[in-house]
Amino acid sequence: MAVYAIGDVQGCYADLQKLLATIAFNPGKDRLWFAGDLVNRGPDSLATLRFVKSLGKAAVTVLGNHDLHLLALSQGNLKHKENDPTLEPILQAKDRVELLNWLRQQPLMHVDRKLDYALIHAGLPPQWDIDTALERAHEVEAVLRSERYSHFVAQMYGNEPSYWSDQLRGIDRLRFITNCFTRLRYCTRSGELALKEKGPPGSQRYGCMPWYEVPGRASDSARILFGHWSTLGFRHAYNTWALDSGCLWGGKLTALKLEKNRQPKLIQVPCKGYRLKKIEARTLWGL
Questions:
Q1: CA torsion sign, 83 to 89 to 95 to 99?
Q2: I need a surface site. Which of 58, 59, 196, 244 has the fewest CB within 10 A?
Q3: What domains appear along the chain, each with residue ranges and CATH number?
Q4: pLDDT tens, position by position, 101-141
Q5: What is the pLDDT of residue 193?
C-alpha cells in the first residue's frame, strides 16, 4: 500500500486526475491524504468533492478555510461571499445535503502514529504539541458534527482572539482553534497569530515569522504536512512539508509519497492555472 499526501486542489479536478494517473493511484490498495481546500475558485469543485467522497476509506481530507467557507455559505453566512460562482454547482446540486454533511464530518487534523506524520491545512501555534493540537481539533470537529453547527459557522469569521489561553471559552475558543488549523501562516515568537500576513517569507511585518520557525515550538519533533500557503510553494523545513504549490494559479499540484523511516518522495504535475492573476488584496477570509 502506498500513501500520498496531496496539496490544495481547490476544484482543479482535471489536474488532480492527471496527478493520480502519474502516481498510478489504485484505490483498492493506495491511500490519499488531502491537505484541505478541496473546493473553491477552480473550475470543478463539485466533481472534486464528489470524487474524494466516493473514495471512502481510500482517502482522508482535513478541512481548509475554503471548505469551511462553503459550509458557511450553505448555512446562510454570506459575510465573505465573493463574485465567484465556483461553489454554486455544489450549493445547487441534487446531492448537496449529502455532500455537505459528509464534508462537515471531516477532521481538522489527521495523525498517523505508524507512519509518524501529522496532516493539517494551515498551522499550529507554538504552545501546542501534537497531542494537544489533536485535542483542540476534536473540540471544533465535535461542534461541526453537532446541532450547533449552523450557529458556529455563523460566528466563526474573525481574527480575534489572537493569543491562546486555556481559559478561552465558547466561540472565542473555537474561533482561535479554527484560525490556527485553517488560516495560520505567521505568528510572533510568543504565539500571537498574525492572520493578516499572507505573502511569502520576507514580506511579513517585523516580529512575525512563519509558524513553523518559532524557536521552541512544542510540535517541532513531529513531522507535519500542511497546505494553504501558495505563495510559499512546496518547501521542506523545520520538520514540516508545505504542499500547496499553487495549482490554482498555474503552478503545480504536489503529492508526497510517505514511507516510514524514509524521506518522502516528491511527485508534481504542472497545472493549467485557472486564476493566473491573483485577486488584488486577496480579501477572502484567510486565503
A1: negative
A2: 196
A3: 3-270 (3.60.21.10)
A4: 999 999 999 999 999 999 999 999 999 999 999 999 999 99
A5: 98
